[in-house]
Amino acid sequence: MRFRTHPMMFRRLMAALLVVLPLAFVAGCSMQDYPQSSLHPHSNYAQWIQTLLEQLTFWVVIIFVVVQALLIYAAIRFRSRPGAPDPKPIHGNTALEIGWTIAPALILTLVAVPTVLTIFKSQAPPPEDALQVRVVGHQWWWEFQYPDLGITTASELHVPVGVPVNISLETADVIHSFWFPAMGGKRDVIPGRTNRLWFTPSDIGQYPGQCAELCGTSHANMRMALMVQAPEEFQAWVAAQQLPPIEPEAGTLAAQGKQYFTQGQCIVCHMIQGVSAGVIGPNLTHVGSRTTIAGGIFPNDAADLGKWIINAPARKPGAKMLSLKDMAMSPEQVPAIVAYLQSLK
Predict the structure, then answer these.
(1) What pLDDT is recorded for position 10?
(2) Looking at residue 91, what is its pLDDT?
(3) 47, 92, 236, 284: which could join 41 in a potential S-S bond, CB 3.0 to 4.6 Å?
(4) Are residues 230 and 146 in the same domain?
(5) Predicted pLDDT of residue 102
(6) Which of 97, 122, 147 is the last residue of a domain?
(7) Helix-, strand-, coil-residue percentages of the chain, each rounded to 5
């Protein structure tokens, strides 16, 4: 049979394609304002994924162009013309049937081979000299432990450039998903099991990440940052983190803040080396050295830290930290507590 297409409908379809296809092409051409893009790889793992994506895209584009060209050719060449007789019916075409059986098999091979090779490459065991990091997901913040270095921090993961990082992933509550787009594929963090991910960062810089699995009220506010540093800068950070917290000088505002911190309910939830041993909230031993607070959503400055202490649930919905009123503390104590926490560097 012949295809019967109305000329006006055909022209409208072609016009729509000429508009939609260029728009779809240019939509991803400017990504400089979107740092959480997996299209800008900054690790070996991310580069493997990017290379695979480019290879598959190459073949997909060729297949799409060929198929659409044949479709358009058939629609034009065999369109119904006024007065044309109906074509004779035919039954089968062995050559065509063999061709469209072999062609998909070849296409599947082109897709499967690089995909399988990338899977095996990315799932290989990490190098023995990899930096070991234990990541624990909480509602709604990330805890980072360096078991070989004796360091525990939150929201900011520091690693040296060019060194493999072997990450074990656990959760303290619900399902989360660990994702630094610039470093590669995300991993689900599931109760009762440990997932793993390893990569080697290739470029110095700060890379944003976040939970990529809906995990409750403040899922969108469960952020983190990856600090990829030069080896000497990372070693300096490690040395500073391994030191005990600085003791504030007597008579200072920070010293008064320490007293409020230890005599109030803060010590129930938070750990400060040599001061308190809470395990519910983030470790605050060197909180003054971090750039953000509240799971990575506010800058670590006096104003935001003070507002966070006064009423955390109002600033981050669902936050488990009690408000100042619920802790039976007064607003007059806040500046001193802020001074103490900011001194912990």
Answers:
(1) 66
(2) 81
(3) 47
(4) yes
(5) 94
(6) 122
(7) 40, 20, 40
Q: At what angle do helices 94-122 and 44-77 cross, to 10 degrees?
A: 170
pLDDT of residue 238: 97
Q: Are residues 114 and 33 in the same domain?
A: yes
Tell me the two tokens of residue 12. Answer: 């409208």
334: its two tokens: 């806040």
Q: How far is CA 135 from the centre of its chain?
A: 14
95 sits in which H/E element: helix 94-122
Burial of 272 (0-12, 13-18, 19+ CB in 10 A): buried
Q: Which candidate, 169, 104, 100, places its Cα nearest to that of 137?
A: 169
221 to each of 155, 183, 185, 290, how far by Cα in Å?
A: 11, 20, 20, 17
Domain that holds residue 287: 253-343
We report the CATH number of the domain holding residue 329 as 2.60.40.420
Question: In terms of C-beta density within 10 A (0-12 exposed, 13-18 middle, 19 or more buried), how is residue 259 classed?
Answer: middle
pLDDT at site 27: 56
Return the number of other C-beta atoms located less than 10 Å from residue 91's C-beta: 4
Cβ atoms of 234 and 246 within 8 Å: the answer is no
Reported pTM:
0.81
Q: What is the per-residue pLDDT across 141-151, written as a single tens digit (0 to 9) for each? A: 999 999 999 99
For 99-214, where are the E strands, in sequence order? Answer: 131-138, 141-146, 151-154, 156-160, 165-171, 176-179, 187-189, 195-199, 205-211
248 lies in some domain:
no
Residue 55: CATH number of its domain: 1.10.287.90
Residue 132 makes CB contacts below 8 A (sequence gap 6+) with 146, 147, 148, 166, 168
pLDDT attached to residue 45 = 95
What is the C-alpha separation between 276 and 263, in angstroms, rounded? 11
Q: Which residues pair with 198 in a beta bridge?
A: 166
Domain boundary among 122, 148, 181: 122
Closest CA to 153 of 320, 281, 342: 281
Q: What is the pLDDT of residue 25?
A: 63
Q: Is 195 left (phi over 0), alpha (psi -120 to 50) or beta?
A: beta
Report the domain count for the chain: 3
**Percent with pLDDT over 90 in the chain:** 64
